[in-house]
Design the sequence.
């Protein structure tokens, strides 16, 4: 018996979930990295596969785009499937001129001006931190594998930043001293939901565009350039 958004049976979702946004990316990761991968959810095209990575059971499940979609899926995973850990893996824009395309970023704090927390938990909250335990595991794994990892604050937005009619106005509303190095669209919902349900969550991102450099990753380059981040997430579990 599943949920309105997930037709996996109880027990078919692993305790550890790697969560890209794109269903096709979830499929690619499962086919490339997992042994005995089994499709366990396909409701609304949000694919989930459970298999094993180096002997450890793991589920790769898409979240879709944006906080509302992430909020639904991570809540159900934590609440109904008893998932313990979710690592979001996705793309981000660079807010720091020192970041280059395909740098891997681990968020240490997320700010969103959305009302996600107010609607979900009647709390006027706009900052949330990831699980320290999960972040430390990712940092240690990166060190052990000699992988360069950038750590810093993240903006979580409800509108793709390049589509904002007045980005400068938005930028001026960012709290002074927050100094974000990356921008994405799902992390706040994941980390806040995990916090309220006493679960663990972390957010790994790969830089695919930058405000400071007129270079953009193509869809193919995004797919290929995310391999280091994917490996880091899998190794960390």
Sequence:
């Amino acid at each position: 018996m599943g949920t309105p958004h997930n037709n996996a049976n109880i027990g078919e979702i692993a305790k550890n979930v790697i969560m890209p946004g794109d269903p096709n990316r979830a499929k690619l990761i499962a086919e490339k990295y997992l042994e005995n991968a089994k499709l366990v959810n396909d409701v609304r095209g949000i694919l989930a596969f459970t298999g094993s990575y180096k002997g450890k059971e793991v589920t790769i499940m898409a979240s879709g785009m944006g906080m509302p979609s992430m909020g639904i899926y991570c809540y159900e995973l934590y609440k109904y499937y008893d998932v313990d850990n979710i690592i979001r893996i996705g793309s981000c824009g660079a807010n720091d001129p020192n970041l280059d395309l395909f740098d891997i970023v681990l968020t240490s704090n997320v700010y969103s001006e959305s009302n996600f927390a107010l609607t979900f938990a009647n709390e006027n909250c706009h900052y949330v931190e990831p699980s320290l335990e999960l972040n430390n595991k990712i940092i240690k794994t990166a060190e052990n594998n000699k992988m360069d990892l950038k750590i810093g604050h993240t903006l979580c937005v409800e509108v793709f930043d390049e589509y904002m009619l007045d980005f400068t106005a938005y930028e001026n509303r960012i709290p002074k001293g927050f100094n974000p190095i990356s921008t994405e669209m799902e992390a706040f919902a994941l980390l806040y939901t995990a916090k309220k349900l006493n679960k663990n969550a972390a957010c790994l991102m790969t830089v695919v565009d930058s405000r400071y450099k007129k270079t953009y990753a193509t869809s193919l380059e995004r797919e290929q350039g995310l391999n280091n981040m994917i490996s880091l997430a899998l190794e960390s579990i």
Observations:
- DSSP finds eight helices and ten strands in the chain.
- The mean pLDDT is 93.
